[in-house]
Design goal:
Strand content: 5-15%
Distance between the termini: 28 Å
Shape: globular
Order of helices and strands: HHHHHEEHHHEEEHEH
Helix content: 40-55%
Length: about 270
């Protein structure tokens, strides 16, 4: 994994890139398209953007005001789904112009806030304290996932890029979330290793280099897997052990319920 001194070159750069990609995507949408249902059940494009704004605001507060962030967490209900809905509600009444401008401003603030800190600085987050570099990975993953939902809504394809490394790294950090999101206990030893082909043709090893439970294949597809934006049958990935295959079937790189599964062949191949 890159050191804290190179966090700008890898994780902050990926965060900035995915945030700017979402901004570019939104500027191409007409007003009526913002209320189009997306593949996420019950969520329109407007919901997707409101959620991203809420998450990036939290990241900025965690970086700039850790104690204030802890106080905010203490005031939440503890029901993750309800807390997410409550944070989005005030934003849903905004126009698409206001939401786009708000997103662009909030995303830029989050990038600046995280970029101002060492990559190994510990910050409070939803489950536990995490390093700045990992929070940047989380933000990248959020923008990738919800941007993909918007693309899938309108059949828009994108070109894979190597910034996806941040999401693959985050997938390893959150490898237990598939079990936790289903109220189950993760295996005592879940030391996965990812052997991946990057979009630019490099080979990446992520995780424990001695780990026996190997998931191998396309790095971009791993990002689609752990964000649950594609069914595993549509992805160029394989698990070398029963545990690796089990992980693939429930993998998710976010806290809370898994949400509805995508169906095999539901979306066009890139």
């Amino acid at each position: 994994m890159p050191t804290s001194s190179s966090v700008e070159n890898v994780f902050i750069a990926a965060l900035r890139f995915e945030a700017e990609t979402v901004t570019a995507l939104l500027t191409d949408l007409g007003g009526e398209e913002w209320d189009t249902p997306t593949p996420a059940t019950g969520w329109t494009v407007r919901h997707q953007v409101a959620h991203l704004i809420s998450v990036y605001r939290l990241a900025t507060q965690a970086a700039n005001d850790p104690e204030g962030f802890r106080s905010l967490l203490a005031q939440l209900s503890g029901d993750f789904t309800r807390d997410v809905a409550a944070s989005m509600q005030p934003l849903l009444a905004k126009s698409q112009v206001e939401l786009t401008a708000t997103w662009e401003h909030v995303a830029a603030e989050a990038v600046i806030a995280l970029d101002s800190l060492p990559g190994d600085r510990m910050l409070p987050w939803l489950l536990n304290d995490i390093p700045v570099s990992v929070l940047a990975m989380a933000g990248t993953t959020e923008a990738f996932a919800h941007g993909q939902d918007i693309r899938d809504t309108f059949g828009t394809l994108r070109t894979p890029n190597d910034h996806v490394r941040a999401i693959c790294e985050f997938a390893y950090h959150t490898r237990e979330f598939g079990w936790l999101g289903r109220g189950a206990q993760p295996p005592a030893e879940l030391d996965l290793r990812f052997e991946l082909n990057s979009p630019r043709g490099q080979h990446w090893t992520i995780g424990n280099p001695e780990g026996d439970d190997v998931v191998s294949g396309d790095a971009w597809d791993l990002a689609l897997l752990v964000t649950r934006r594609r069914h595993p049958d549509d992805l160029a990935l394989s698990g070398g052990t029963e545990l690796a295959r089990r992980w693939m079937s429930i993998a998710q790189a976010y806290r809370g319920p898994a949400g509805d599964d995508r169906k095999p062949g539901q979306f066009a191949s890139r």
